[in-house]
Amino acid sequence: MVGGVSGIGANWGTQTSHPLPPSTVVQLLKDDGFQKVKLFDAEDGTMSALRNSKIEVMVGIPNDMLLTLATNVKAAEKWVSENVSSYVNDGVNIRFVFC
């Protein structure tokens, strides 16, 4: 344990030539004992597959949205509502947002 953090996690990107179905990836993560996952976007299929999985999720803000979200409060509120709040309310264990 380093700095009070425990558990094992994985990075999960969706930019791949041969993607696995999100439900398969979630099952693999659970079967292999992963308790945390870092996503580089909040893709709906991925987020839906994580619903009620108890896996802790860290969601990334896409680079092309950083300037807009940093300078436009309404855009930032909308992004959080659509990409964080809606999934938390639907059973996804989102713990962090990163950029």
TrEMBL record:
Gene Ontology MF terms: hydrolase activity, hydrolyzing O-glycosyl compounds
One of the Pfam families matching this protein, by short name: Glyco_hydro_17
Domain of life per record: Eukaryota
GO biological process, one term: carbohydrate metabolic process
InterPro entries per the UniProt record, alphabetical: GH (IPR017853), Glyco_hydro_17 (IPR000490), Glyco_hydro_17_plant (IPR044965)
Keyword annotations from UniProtKB, A to Z: Glycosidase, Hydrolase
Family: Belongs to the glycosyl hydrolase 17 family.
Protein name (database record): Glucan endo-1,3-beta-glucosidase 6
Source species of the chain: Dendrobium catenatum
